[in-house]
Amino acid sequence: MLAAQPTLGSVQLTFTVDQTATFVNGEPAALLAAPRVVGGRTLLPLRETAALLGQPLLGTAGQVQLARLSVDTRQNSAALNGQTQPAGTVTTLGGVLYVSARTLADALNANLSSDDGRTFTLTALRDGGNPLIPQARFSTDKTVYAPGERVVYTEYPFDPDGADITARRWTGRQDAYFQPGTYTISLTVTNARGLQSQPFTRSIRVEGTPVDTPLTYALKYGQPGDSFPDPQILSYPSATPTTTESPSYPLLFSDSPEVPAQSGVLYQDSLAGRARLLAYHLNGLGRPARLYVMARNLESRPVEVRSERLGETAPTRIEGILGQVTLLEYFASGGGTVLNLLPGQTAAVYASPTLGAGSGVNVMQDLITSGRVELTFLMLEDALPPTAQVMQQLPYLRPDGKHVRGTFPGAVRSLRVNLGALPARIVIGDGRVDPALTGTDVLTGQGVRLSGNYGVLYDLEVNGAAGTAVALSPRGGLYRGAMNIQDGPITQTIKLPRTGNALKPDEPVLLWRPQSDRLNIDFVPSSGSNLPVSLVFYRARTLSGFGGLIKTYRP
Predict the structure, then answer these.
(1) What's this model's pTM, rounded to 2 decimal places?
(2) Which tens digit of pLDDT belongs to each residue from 154-168?
(3) How are beta strands 242-244 and 251-254 bridged, if at all?
(4) DSSP code at position 47
(5) Is 460 within 8 Å of 525 (Cβ atoms)?
(6) Residues 6+ apart with CB under 8 A from 198
(7) Which among 208, 277, 292, 442 has the fewest CB atoms less than 10 Å away?
(8) pLDDT under 50 in the chain at which residues?
C-alpha cells in the first residue's frame, strides 16, 4: 500500500468493488481489504483508505475521527458534523472497519464519481496538516535502479518557523537493493520543539542486470567500520608475515585475579627504561574501590617516570566496551606527563575513577623511566588511601586460575607482508600461526603464556597495498576494538566496528582502502574481546563481470 504524495493539490483514488487493486493519482497501489457493497451501499476499508489518501485518522480504538466524520467503532455508528448517519454507514467485515464511500466523500468535501457503478474515483484535496509541525522531504537520484546500484538520497526537510530538525527516522531505506522488486521508503523528522512530521514516502523499482553484489558494493562504497557479507572468507589463503627485529620492551600484564574480592596487590615487578602496562579488573569487593598503579623509586638518586601514552575505560559494567574505548583513548593520547620521584618515594602513575561494586576498569599505559622503579598494581576499597603504610599491610592476592598476570618480553611485534594473489588473510592471536607471548609471574616465579597477546602492539607493514581494501574478520566471537593506520601522509584511528559488535567470521568489518603502496597498521588485541582475528585484503578495483558505474555524489 502506497501513501499519497503531496505533489498535487488533489489525491485521486480509483477503486473497484471486490478488487484489492487500486490506483492513486494513476500509480498502482493495493488494499488488503477489498471494497464491498452491503445493503446497497459501497463501502471502503476506513484505515487503509485514509492512508492512501494521506488523511490523518485520529482517536483511540473506540472512537476515531477522519476530517468531519466521527466513528464509534464499538457501536458501528457514525456522525458527520455531529449529525448521526443512517444505520449501515459503518460496519465491520472480517475484523475490518468499513465506511460508506459517499459518507467518506462528504466528510472530506471530496467528489465521488462512477461510470458503471462498480469502479469509482474519489477525488479529495490533500490534507492541510498541522501548520506547526515540520515537513519531511527527500528525493532519490532515480526511480528505477539495477540490483546493487547505489541509491543517492538527498534530504531537504524543513520547519515552518525555522526550528532545527533534531531527529530523522527512516523506514525501508537501504544504500542499495540487491533483489528485484518495488521498495517503499519513508522519512519522518522531529523538530527542536519535539513536534513530529507526517511520514513522507517515495517508491523505487529495482530490475535488470546487477551492477554489484553485496561484497563488491561494500568494496566500492563501504565506510571504515562498516560490516559486509562474505561467505567465502574462511577459504582465502593466509599471507605469511615476516617477523623483523625492532626495538621492543616488556609488557606488565595484570588480569588475575580478574575480580578481586578484597583489597590487595594484584601484580608487582620492577623495571628500568620503557614498558607497557595493561590491567583489566572488575571490582568484586562489594563496595566502592579504585585501581592504582604505584611507582616506587628503587634508586639512590631521583628518577623521572614519563607517561608516553595512556588509554583507559572506567567505570563500566559492560565488558565489551572496556577494550575498545581504551584503545581509542590510547591511540589519541599525546603523553608527556612526568612524575619526578626522590629515592624511595612512591606515587601513583595511574588511579582509576571510583568503581562501583561489579564495575570494571581497563587501562593501557606506556611508561619510560630514567632508573629502576617498582610498579605495583593495587585494588583498594575507596576508603583506603594508597600510602606506603597501607601498601605494606596489603596481602598479595593469589591468581584466580583462569586468567593471566605476568611480565612478558616483546610488547611490540613487528611484521612485514608483501601482498601477492588476493584475497588473502593475515591471522592474529591464534597461538599457532601467530604464537602467544611467554613470560613469568614474578610474584609466584611460574612461567605463564599470554593467549591472545592482549596488550601486544602489532607493528604491521603491508607492501603492495595500493588499490586494495583491508577488513577485519572476527574468528573467536564478539570483537570490539580499534586500529591506527598510516597511509602515506594520512594517519587515522578506526573504530571497529563503527557500531555494535563484530561477531561473525563471514561478516568482516571494513578497515581502509589504501592509496599508498605501503600501509602501516598498529593493532593491539582488544581486552574484553575474543581472539583470533584475521586481516583480510581484497582487490578494491571494479571486478570483471560487474558494472563499472561508481556514483561519487554524497549529499
Answers:
(1) 0.76
(2) 999 999 999 999 999
(3) unpaired
(4) H
(5) no
(6) 54, 56, 129, 133, 136, 188
(7) 208
(8) 1-6, 542-546
